[in-house]
Design goal:
249 residues, single chain, mainly beta
Length: 249
């Protein structure tokens, strides 16, 4: 009976191994390397199946590198050969033949007019700027763009390789409170900080980033690639990613 018992045990362990790995999802195919994710963590393998890094809390692309958060909540970076590196000279070429847009705030006695003008393909600027939004002065005391000014220029390469707010967002001030005009909820905040073309929202002593996190943190640092340092209302520290998932110490 012992040989049969041994076979049964081996079969059971093999089945457990299959079940344990069947939930792993290939999230990045990096040529010679594969990055898998399960409910608990990420791992990086080469094409021979050798595990190079395991039990990682987070793996995400950072232009020409990979941003890693390990099980000790330490951030480091890998190059395309999956070797630890520093992300210096982290840039890539961009296309020059893309639309260029000029946004301006104009106003009359009754309303603010949000104007948009495409200037690259409209050679000679023969096509006039169009009105994107009309905002009644009963609804807003003042309006701005994401740079905190009444004019903002951007092109079709906007946002590539970095985190930035939607370029045509309009911020308005009403009775000392601030909101984002395209936000259908019309939520008002105590303050909106224009931070490197991201909108940092403050409300009732809490803070967060528009489109990236909830407004619920005691402190939040600027995003570096995919992660931002946080301090929760309970005093816990860690990081949050672009989808709002937290990685606490």
């Amino acid at each position: 009976m012992k040989p049969k018992l041994i076979i049964l045990i081996i079969s059971f362990l093999s089945a457990q191994f299959v079940l344990a790995t069947s939930s792993d999802t290939l999230v990045y195919d990096a040529g010679e390397f594969k990055i898998y994710q399960n409910e608990r963590s990420f791992r990086i393998e080469n094409n021979s199946g050798k595990i190079l890094y395991n039990h990682l809390k987070y793996v995400g692309p950072a232009i020409r590198f990979w941003q890693i958060l390990d099980d000790k909540n330490r951030i480091f970076y890998l190059d395309q050969e999956m070797k630890i590196t520093e992300p210096e000279n982290n840039f890539f070429g961009l296309c020059g033949t893309v639309p260029h847009y000029e946004l301006k705030v104009q106003s009359n006695k009754k309303e603010f007019l949000i104007m948009e003008d495409e200037t690259f393909y409209d050679y000679g600027n023969e096509i006039p700027a169009e009105i994107k939004f009309r905002i009644s002065k009963q609804d807003a005391d003042e309006v701005y763009f994401i740079n905190g000014k009444k004019e903002f220029n951007y092109d079709g390469n906007y946002g590539i390789g970095s985190l930035k707010a939607q370029p045509d967002l309009v911020i308005y001030r009403k009775n000392g409170k601030f909101g984002i005009w395209q936000d259908e909820s019309k939520t008002l905040y105590d303050y909106i900080e224009f931070e490197d073309l991201n909108l940092k929202l403050y409300q009732n002593g809490k803070v967060g980033y528009h489109g990236l996190t909830e407004v619920k943190y005691k402190e939040i640092q600027p995003f570096i690639y995919n992660l931002a340092g946080i301090k929760t209302a309970e005093g816990k520290t860690g990081f949050v990613d672009m989808q709002g998932k937290e990685y606490l110490n």
